[in-house]
Design brief:
6-stranded mixed β-sheet; 10 strands; alpha/beta; globular
């Protein structure tokens, strides 16, 4: 939490000239070091890689380099602002990779929204990087893009807006259940928002054993009787809403144990008041939560947001640096569902000794998180046979 308000002047000054630079780990300070780092010495390394391409992983940075890729169509809470305007966010993401995961990364903002063109671009660039972090790509196109890239590339690919959010939500929910002595399998969860994050959260919660999930989009509860559902929502309709509910948020939240907000909607206080005893509210819309934490706290036992100025911040930085670090440490070819579940368990485990109603996940700045997540993800990759 910040001690004083952050000024616009401070923000723009911190971004002037960008947030990234290239460092040189071995100094080039004399003719000998120049001859080793560049010509003629570098030719020997290039010849060796030409004869054995696997050596690129040892003698270049490619196997440790993450491409942070966006088309600028769903940037933070700003929406479709384009590639150039998304670049400060991607630079920030790259800075977080280095700070928390010790990984180098390069922002790639692409001036196209065509899935075929994006896939072709990254396939052609594949020798230059070791993993792809998709960022701020609008739904439902993000689902197709991620799947196409997973199939086309022999390296880890993850859309962080989907899976990073879902992993931290699951970790936070496990922490909340421990504090309240609840069984995650017995919770009735309502998810407001069926975009990238909402869909991924629904899938990971179902995979983690939550039996009763109800989803809503801008038209209300998603159910099998609704017309004009896209393929993703059609699949979710068959897996969720076991009570066959119809209507909107009031019908969904009555008696619910958990509210998970991943949309720009507003939740009236009187609707939150109808939730079950010891309710859990994750109001994650930024910058304005679906319901103010102080209001939600009148009725819910545990409240979380996506903001740093309230307790229980659910922040993707708890997940993605360690996930990619663990995947790259063992040369994983992809990021599996078990690797994501392992990451959630690791995040939850770090908070175990300090759990409380206002501390269900570790701080985003906790230095223990990324190494623990990386180790858990690496083990899961080996167990899944993708290392």
């Amino acid at each position: 939490m910040t001690d004083k308000p952050i000024t616009d002047e401070e923000i723009f000054a911190a971004h002037e000239g960008g947030k990234l630079g290239v460092s040189v780990p071995r100094a080039i300070a004399d003719p000998r070091s120049l001859a080793i780092a560049y010509t003629p010495g570098v030719a020997k390394v290039s010849r060796a890689i030409a004869e054995n391409a696997d050596l690129a992983a040892k003698y270049t940075w490619s196997h440790r380099l993450v491409a942070v890729v966006s088309d600028g169509t769903a940037v933070l809470g700003l929406g479709d602002i384009g590639a150039s305007a998304s670049l400060p966010v991607m630079e920030g993401k790259a800075a977080l990779f280095k700070t928390f995961g010790g990984l180098d990364s390069i922002p790639l903002v692409l001036d196209t929204t065509d899935v075929d063109e994006i896939v072709e671009t990254l396939v052609r660039l594949r020798p230059s990087f070791g993993a792809v972090n998709l960022e701020d790509v609008a739904a439902p196109r993000c689902f197709e893009l991620e799947q196409r890239l997973i199939e086309a590339l022999d390296c880890p690919v993850m859309h962080d807006d989907q899976h990073g959010t879902a992993i931290v939500v699951l970790a936070a929910l496990r922490g909340a259940c421990t504090v309240l002595s609840r069984d995650i399998a017995n919770l009735r969860v309502v998810i407001s928002g069926a975009g990238a994050a909402g869909v991924a959260c629904a899938k990971i919660l179902l995979a983690a054993g939550v039996a009763d999930v109800t989803m809503l989009d801008s038209r209300g509860i998603i159910h099998t009787g609704r017309e004009n559902l896209n393929p993703i929502k059609t699949e979710l309709a068959a897996q969720t809403n076991k009570a066959g509910l119809r209507g909107g948020l009031p019908e969904a939240l009555a008696g619910a144990d958990v509210f998970l907000g991943l949309s720009a909607s507003t939740v009236p206080e009187e609707v939150v008041a109808t939730m079950a005893d010891d309710a859990i509210v994750f109001a994650l819309s930024n910058p304005d939560p679906e319901i103010h934490p102080d209001v939600a706290g009148k009725y819910a036992a545990i409240v979380a947001t996506g903001r740093s100025d309230f307790p229980n911040q659910i922040n993707n930085v708890l997940a993605f640096p360690g996930i990619f670090r663990g995947a790259l440490d063992v040369g994983a070819r992809q990021i599996t569902d078990n690797m994501k579940l392992a990451a959630a368990e690791a995040i939850a485990a770090v908070a175990t000794d300090e759990l409380a109603a206002d501390h269900i996940v570790p701080s985003a700045l906790d230095p223990r998180v990324a190494p623990e997540v990386a180790e858990a993800v690496a083990r899961a990759a080996k167990a899944d046979g993708v290392a």
